[in-house]
Amino acid sequence: MKSIKISLEMAQKVKEFVAITQESSCEILLKSGKYVVDAKSILGIFSLDLSKPLTVEIYSDDCADLLAKLAKFAA
To answer: Measured in whole angstroms, how far is the alpha carbon of residue 54 from the centre of its chain?
Structure first.
């Protein structure tokens, strides 16, 4: 498992983030405090507090390309 901190403060960033995560076949979760949602679900993401940094957890050992794509959202 790999994890990174990201920031998704604008709706356009959420849309870009979901488009990137939906391309991946591995399980990706997004955490905010005690809440956990599927990172491929735009509705799930909008249910989180987006004013604070979020933690992305990627359940795959071969995810270097995905991490590179998500780097632009780093908090």
So the answer is: 8
Length of the chain: 75
According to DSSP, the residues that pair with 6 across neighbouring strands are: 54, 74
Q: What angle do CA 43, 45, 47 make, to 5 degrees?
A: 75
pTM of the full predicted structure? 0.93
pLDDT at 4: 95
State how far the Cα of 12 lies from the Cα of 63, in Å rounded to an integer. Answer: 24
Question: Partners of 57 in the beta sheet?
Answer: 3, 29
Q: Which CATH architecture is the domain 2-73 placed in?
A: 2-Layer Sandwich (3.30)
